Amino acid sequence: MKTTILAIATLFAAFSTSAVFAQAADKMNPGDDLPAITTTLQNASGKSTTLKGAAGENGLLVMFSCNTCPFVLKNQATTKKVMEYAMAHKVGMVIINSNEAKRSDDDSYIAMKKYATAQGYAVPYVVDENSKLADLFGASHTPEIFLFNKRNKLVYKGAMTDNGSDPSTAKVMYAENAINAMLAGKEADPKTTKSIGCSIKRKA
């Protein structure tokens, strides 16, 4: 009987901790600090990196992405444009693959290396083991971006443009506008938008 009660208590505690963690992640808002800045991440280039190491003089743009999501594929040109814009304005960028449920298949490290080469990524494309970073950021979709200033404070999160479903008709470049506002010492407008894409495939 005591063993059963102890097991139930342990299970309840684990569930409660997970719930609190998930709740905290969901509440990551502009003004929050960049998490896990010194965590070593495996880069598709073959070299390891950290978020701190990927940051530029003016900040860091974090993108959650993958290899096969239809929304990621149709936004490939937008991703390259945002990447080039960030680099031109001395904002570092890192692309994170958190699809842990597909790590042995379409989002394996080998597949990531091939995809990064095909896309000509000039920024780190890293593995998020067990979707830990996605959980810390509260990221839920691909593609989804988080922009941090040089003080490692979140200034914008959400979509790259106002039309991730049909990028060719997008009229507002949220990512570029947020970078411009940040560099001008102003607040992004809007600070948050809804990311539209595929769900991040976490382990069951």
N-to-C CA distance:
30 Å
- The string of secondary-structure elements, in order, is HEEHEHHEHEHEEEHE
Task: Provide the β-strand percentage band.
Answer: 15-25%
Largest sheet, in brief, is:
5 strands, mixed
Number of domains: 1
Report the principal-axis shape. Answer: globular
Average residue pLDDT:
89
The helix content is 25-40%
The CATH class assignment is Alpha Beta
The name of the CATH topology is Glutaredoxin
Give the topology.
Elements: H1 2-26, E1 41-42, E2 48-49, H2 51-54, E3 59-65, H3 70-74, H4 76-88, E4 92-97, H5 109-119, E5 125-127, H6 132-137, E6 141-142, E7 144-149, E8 154-158, H7 174-183, E9 198-199
Description:
By secondary structure, the chain is of the alpha/beta class. The chain has one domain (2-199): Glutaredoxin. It is built from seven helices and nine strands; from the N terminus they run H-E-E-H-E-H-H-E-H-E-H-E-E-E-H-E. The chain has helices spanning 2-26, 51-54, 70-74, 76-88, 109-119, 132-137, 174-183, and strands at 41-42, 48-49, 59-65, 92-97, 125-127, 141-142, 144-149, 154-158, 198-199. The two termini are 30 Å apart.
What's the short version?
The protein is α/β, with parallel strands linked by helices and 204 residues long. Helix content is 36%, strand content 17%. It has helices at residues 2-26, 51-54, 70-74, 76-88, 109-119, 132-137, 174-183; strands at residues 41-42, 48-49, 59-65, 92-97, 125-127, 141-142, 144-149, 154-158, 198-199.
